[in-house]
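2024-03-11 09:14:02 INFO worker-7 job=invfold-0412 stage=load source=structure_tokens
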């Protein structure tokens, strides 16, 4: 026998052994599926900063305390991309890929194929259900979610997703969710769209008819604990806070005319949604049908309270303390219903937030400020466009908003760099603007390394992204508003969020290595043994894998 023939036999034997090993592995993963939790609860807390878990740890006695003492908690987690807003945040949590693949590059984006501004979950082909909701679906989401992976491997599993915000509920649930529900503040009830169902389930109708607000909302929002608990973290009243009923300090009386929207600008918005989540568990018998079900919840009052009063305000502390209590009750219910090992609970966030500039200057003494550069920028860009049209003798626009008319530029024989240099020259002269990142910088892999470039890349999709991004200075709030704060920058304060797992078999621990929200879906999918897309950006978090 020739040496080559022996080689071939050895190779065949090795291949056979690999095939047997792979089959065994496959068998093992199915065998392990009997060990799957009955229910996965995936909670996103909108605009919760990573430091919210640590900073007030001494005050927590409920759900946050249980996560901190019984869970696997990642202290150094971030989004790892530039566009820190709600749509991209939730799509990243559920899909395990960055906006460059999920297609959700903003709450709104320009569809470059037709030039239309598009809301990330708009879908005019869907209708209202029982007189509410409608015109929404995950149609614009270009990636699959944990819920989709679960349904593909276990068609009997149910996926239910709920939030105050339509985009949070829809993007967390994915394409094959049984239901996504969100709150309509014009009528004060939970709604959905015909993408999911033609009529609301009876348990939703019953919840909507239950008079929750009348039964549960107090006359005024007051502090849960004594003022001294809050004051040690800073003052209650600060310049720059958005007044509630004319005052920025406690108490905050609910106003009858505004009560349907004030509900979700107060901690009771979380109570409302967690009560609704309990009804979902009962109404759909989630976790009680011999398969693994998924319940996604996104709580938004942190976003509303934080945007009005800032992340370190007494209002935010109170919001978190009350959420800690609500979450404690919710976890206790889960434990009672499903027992230890029966439920896997994952916590993530969609983005952080900048402190109020006034807080930063008054309390932390940094050089923070509000800059109203938008009018200057928009006016300046319009003037530049008019000037260039005259100079180059064209009637069509050359630059509009954050779009550049590259085909026209090529047509008149100009180099795109000439136009980009003029835009950069104008925008970087405006107070507060640091740099302009152009489409060509993002696409060209040879662009020299610079801060945030990779973060912009992970936020960029050619069909849906603008032609340039402007990065403002750190701790600078680019806004026309005199009060409140926001997010959306690539800076750490907008990018760091909590990640925690509870109900895993791993020993409680706190981990300080850098991880990303994109890793959560990969972790849950791997734990469940689901078949996941090959192009995931997330990496399973090993500490939570047991
Ligand atoms: Zn958000």
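2024-03-11 09:14:09 INFO worker-7 stage=emit residues=546
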């Amino acid at each position: 026998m020739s040496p080559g023939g022996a080689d071939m036999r050895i190779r065949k034997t090795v291949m056979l052994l690999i095939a047997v090993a792979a089959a065994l592995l496959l068998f093992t993963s199915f065998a392990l599926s009997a060990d799957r939790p009955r229910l996965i609860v995936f909670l996103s807390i909108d605009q919760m900063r990573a430091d919210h878990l640590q900073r007030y740890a001494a005050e927590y006695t409920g759900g946050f305390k249980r996560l901190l003492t019984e869970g696997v908690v990642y202290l150094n987690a971030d989004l790892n991309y530039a566009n820190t807003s709600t749509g991209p945040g939730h799509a990243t949590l559920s899909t395990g890929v960055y906006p460059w693949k999920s297609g959700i590059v903003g709450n709104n984006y320009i569809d470059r194929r037709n030039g239309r501004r598009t809301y990330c979950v708009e879908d005019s082909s869907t209708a209202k259900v029982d007189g509410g909701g409608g015109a929404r679906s995950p149609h614009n989401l270009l990636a699959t979610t944990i819920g989709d992976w679960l349904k593909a491997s276990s068609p009997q599993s149910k996926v239910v997703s709920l939030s105050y915000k339509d985009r949070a509920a829809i993007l967390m649930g994915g394409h094959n969710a049984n239901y996504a529900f969100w709150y309509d503040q014009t009528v004060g009830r939970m709604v959905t769209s015909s993408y999911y169902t033609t009529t609301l389930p009876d348990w939703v109708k019953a919840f909507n008819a239950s008079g929750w607000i009348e039964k549960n909302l107090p006359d005024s929002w007051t502090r849960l604990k004594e003022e001294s608990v809050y004051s040690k973290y800073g003052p209650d009243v600060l310049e720059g806070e958005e007044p509630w009923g004319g005052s920025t300090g406690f108490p905050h009386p609910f106003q009858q005319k505004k009560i349907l929207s004030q509900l979700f600008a107060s901690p009771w918005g979380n109570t409302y949604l967690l009560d609704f989540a309990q009804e979902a568990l009962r109404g759909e018998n989630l976790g009680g049908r011999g398969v693994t079900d998924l319940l996604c919840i996104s709580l938004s009052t942190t976003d509303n309270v934080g945007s009005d009063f800032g992340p370190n305000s007494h209002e935010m502390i109170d919001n978190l303390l009350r959420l800690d209590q609500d979450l404690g009750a919710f976890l206790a219910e889960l434990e009672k219903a499903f027992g230890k090992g029966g439920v896997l609970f994952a916590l993530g966030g969609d983005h952080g937030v900048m402190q109020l500039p006034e807080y930063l200057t008054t309390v932390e003494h940094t050089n923070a400020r509000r800059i109203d550069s938008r009018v200057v920028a928009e006016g300046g860009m319009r003037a530049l466009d008019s000037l260039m049209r005259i100079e180059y003798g064209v009637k069509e626009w050359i630059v509009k908003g954050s779009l550049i008319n590259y085909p026209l530029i090529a047509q008149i024989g100009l180099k795109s760099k000439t136009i980009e240099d003029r835009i950069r020259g104008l925008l970087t002269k405006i107070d507060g603007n640091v740099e302009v990142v152009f489409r060509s910088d993002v696409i060209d892999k040879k662009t020299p390394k610079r801060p945030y470039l990779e973060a912009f890349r992970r936020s960029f999709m050619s069909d849906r992204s603008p032609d340039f991004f402007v990065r403002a200075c750190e701790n600078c709030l680019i806004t026309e508003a005199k009060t409140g704060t926001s997010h959306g920058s690539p800076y750490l304060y907008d990018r760091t969020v909590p990640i925690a797992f509870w109900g895993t078999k791993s020993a409680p621990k706190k981990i300080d290595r850098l991880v990303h929200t994109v890793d959560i879906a990969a972790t849950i999918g791997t734990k469940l043994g689901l078949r996941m897309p090959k192009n995931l950006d997330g990496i399973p978090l090993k500490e939570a894998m047991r």
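2024-03-11 09:14:09 INFO worker-7 stage=report msg="Residues 46-47, 86, 89, 303, 350-351 surround zinc ion (CB under 6 Å)."
2024-03-11 09:14:10 INFO worker-7 job finished
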